[in-house]
Design a protein that fits this description.
Layout (H helix, E strand, L loop, with lengths): L13 E15 L5 E8 L4 E6 L13 E11 L2 E11 L16 H13 L4 H13 L1 H4 L15 H19 L5 H10 L4 H4 E4 L2 E4 L1 H5 L2 H16 L5 H15 L16 H20 L3 E2 L3 E2 L13 H10 L17 E2 L8 E2 L21 H4 L22
Helix pairs in contact: 1-2, 2-5, 2-8, 4-5, 4-10, 5-9, 5-10, 8-9, 9-10
């Protein structure tokens, strides 16, 4: 059954839509009037809401499906719901809202087995094959995170295989890198998440083990114990390979402050760290909210700055020989700015201003920093981003 999505709602809209409760708490206003604060999910995106006229005193259970009547409002730049009515509904089941990638996860799993079968090293090949086959049910269901990236069923599998593809490509370009170690470590780097997370209805939760231990430790500990059962770990050369593999798992977050148990201390560990980050960044940008034609909104997990939309890059390269002209400072768009022959002040081609644009100017920011510091209709110094006079004028 078709249903409206949160992403389709605009501020000011009056909506009636089925949503899943992921959290609900009774609170009080400053005037001591009780209200219900809710976290809701449409199967793709979460949104918070407040039910100010909440009089029943009954708090909805987690994973219950409600027909929510509300007005879409905004608080600190984030959409939320001003709820006026809550009704139960039997038109949907929890399965209709399960977070999913839309990808054939069985095909991804078979792809992992193919990568493993292509390995030459017998120790890593056996270890990876058994870890995937014996844990298949978990690989096909456990998410890759609570939030941020790959936070849906089989997200850990999809992310691990994607990271392995990246690691394989990098290792093939670096003559000194051991390809089998890079691929094996990437395929297993997040194995600990299989024991750290679970899906409760539509809510991704930590397990008790996940709360107590970091997934890097859980994965490394599992591999160390598992290898004793499926590999000849008494062989010193086999044990040395396992040590290198476990190190890659423990260090794949790169820095201690980012969650690594130790920083990378081998070439392959550095490669797996980068491959992990590239896969995570790609997934974050796939789901980043657009702002205009070119940029996304600020991406908290990626330095909290706007990024170029993936669709925009596709669009630009689709032009091929018909691509619009660009200068060294500009990205093609409906309205661009250009650098005057004398002086460093960027000039708006729509209204001719070298400072703040006229109110009627249709110009949009060309520089990413405009989203941080300047109003929408402005141009800035290409050196220091100032919208007023600066020391670079006339340079």
């Amino acid at each position: 059954m078709s249903r409206r999505k949160i992403a389709e709602c605009e501020v000011g809209d009056q909506v009636v839509m089925p949503l899943v409760v992921t959290g609900a708490n009774a609170r009080e206003t400053k005037a001591k009037k009780p209200y219900l604060q809710m976290d809701l999910f449409d199967g793709f995106e979460k949104i918070s809401g407040n039910y100010w006229d909440w009089a029943s005193g009954k708090i909805p259970e987690k994973n219950s499906i409600l027909l929510v009547t509300a007005q879409v409002t905004e608080w600190q730049g984030v959409k939320q719901l001003n709820i006026s009515k809550l009704n139960t509904t039997t038109d949907y089941t929890i399965a209709d809202f399960m977070p999913s990638s839309g990808i054939d996860v069985n095909a991804i799993f078979e792809g992992a087995l193919t990568m493993i079968d292509d390995m030459d090293d017998p120790t890593l090949k056996t270890l990876c094959a058994e870890a995937y086959r014996q844990l298949k049910a978990k690989w096909l269901s456990i998410p890759g995170a609570i939030t941020i990236h790959h936070a849906y069923a089989a997200g850990a599998l999809i992310h691990s295989v994607e990271a392995a593809c990246v690691a394989k490509a990098i290792s093939c370009a670096i003559a000194e890198a051991n390809e089998d170690l890079c691929v094996a470590a990437a395929l297993l780097h997040d194995l600990g998440k299989l024991f750290s997370y679970r899906i409760n209805g539509v809510v991704v939760e930590y397990t008790d083990e996940g709360y107590l231990f970091d997934h890097t430790f859980i994965g490394a500990n599992f591999i160390s114990n598992f290898a004793d059962k499926v590999c000849d770990s008494d062989n010193p050369f086999v044990q040395a390979k396992l040590n290198l593999l476990v190190h890659c798992i423990l260090s794949h977050h790169g820095k201690l402050e980012f969650g690594a148990a130790v920083p990378p201390k081998s070439l392959e560990a550095h490669i797996v760290d980068r491959a992990d980050g590239i896969s995570a960044a790609a997934e974050i940008l796939r789901t980043a909210k657009p702002q205009g034609e070119i940029w996304t909104e600020r991406v908290w997990a990626l330095e909290n700055v706007p990024h170029i939309q993936l669709a925009y890059t596709d669009k630009i390269f689709a032009y091929q020989d018909e691509a619009p002209l660009m200068n060294e400072y500009n990205l093609p768009g409906d309205v661009s700015t250009s650098v005057p022959i004398s002086g460093s002040r960027a000039t708006c081609t729509a209204c001719g201003s070298q400072g703040a644009c006229l109110p009627s100017c249709p110009s949009v920011p060309t520089f990413a920093d405009d989203y941080d510091n300047h109003p929408v209709n402005s141009t800035c110094c290409v050196i220091c981003n100032s919208t007023g006079p600066c020391e670079h004028d006339g340079v």
